[in-house]
Amino acid sequence: QDPLVLGAWNHFAICLDGSGSATCYQNGVALSRADSGTISSDFTFKYIGRAFNQYLSGYLCNLAYWSANLTQAQIKSIMWKNYAGLSDSEKTNLVSWWNLSANANDSHGSNNGTLS
Predict the structure, then answer these.
(1) Alpha-carbon dihedral angle through residues 73, 29, 113, 37, given to the nearest 10 degrees
(2) Is the dihedral of CA 94, 99, 102, 107 positive or negative?
């Protein structure tokens, strides 16, 4: 897996299968897990770019949510596209797409990472 490089864009995907397993991808490559824990079936994301009182020190762009568990091939296909570049099949099960600028605070006002 690629190390994070300051000043470079990275693509991340988190795929939950609904039964307690998740696969996380960085730039289309599956990341290994340090533990063997499970995720509850009612897990929800409340914040993007925030964990408790810690905030992402970076930019978010093109945030999307699918209602299906994407394959690695699907992630590699969509990871550097904007919404207009998605094919009809790539939009299957797409629930929401946020077309953010390089700095979400520039075009969307104060953004504390809350999805609501």
Answers:
(1) 110
(2) negative
A 10 A CB-CB count for 78 gives 22
Asked whether the beta carbons of 27 and 13 are under 8 A apart, the reply is no
Q: What pTM does this model have? A: 0.69
Rg (CA), the chain: 15
What SS3 string covers 29-56?
EECCCCCCCCCCCCCCCCECCEECCEEC
Distance CA 87, CA 47 (A): 28
**What is the token pair recorded at 16?**
């939950």
Give, for all 116 residues of the chain, the pLDDT tens digit. Answer: 567 777 788 888 888 777 777 788 888 888 876 666 666 666 666 777 777 788 777 777 778 888 888 999 999 999 888 888 999 999 999 988 887 765 444 343 444 444 44
Q: How far apart are CA 45 and CA 66, in angstroms?
A: 13
**Whether 46 contacts 38, CB under 8 Å:** no
